[in-house]
Amino acid sequence: MLRDKNLIPLSHQHxxxxxxxxxxxxxxxxxxxxxxxxxxxxAQLFKTEIAIHFAAEEEIIFPKAQHFAExxxxxxxxxxxxxxxxxxxxxxxxxxxxxxDVSAIAQRLSTHIRKEERQLFERLxxxxxxAELASIGQKLESALKxxxxxxxxxxxxxxxxxxx
Length: 164
Prior knowledge:
It is a single chain. The chain is an all-alpha fold. It is built from 5 helices and no strands. The protein has a domain at 43-146. It has helices at residues 8-27, 35-65, 72-93, 99-127, 130-143. Helix 1 (8-27) packs antiparallel against helix 2 and helix 1 packs antiparallel against helix 4. The chain is elongated, with a radius of gyration of 16 Å.
């Protein structure tokens, strides 16, 4: 199903986070010498986009989904994911990650994003009418205004290199 235009700002942020996850996956195993660079990039993405993104979902999307009893287990699971991911991001902010932590956060974030895109957003588009989706879009525009709106270029240490 095509993404409703009112949910696209969240989907664009998902794409940027997934791009980081893919780069981490392709760079794995992460060399110990590169851990600081990776966690700096992870921490930067959290501060400039993901923290704002999580808050918008928790304040706008999840409450709307919880109006439907069938969505409650999924929302509870996503809230649990947010809490676990926030804790992992705080480890990155504190510069206390190991190489395994870098890979683990990428895997968890990727799984979480795919769950939101494939389950939450798809079902909300089926359950909500055009006016409800438009209302969500207006609220998201305001909630996401302080978030980064473009991909940050990776630093040299986290840039993917061509296969040899």
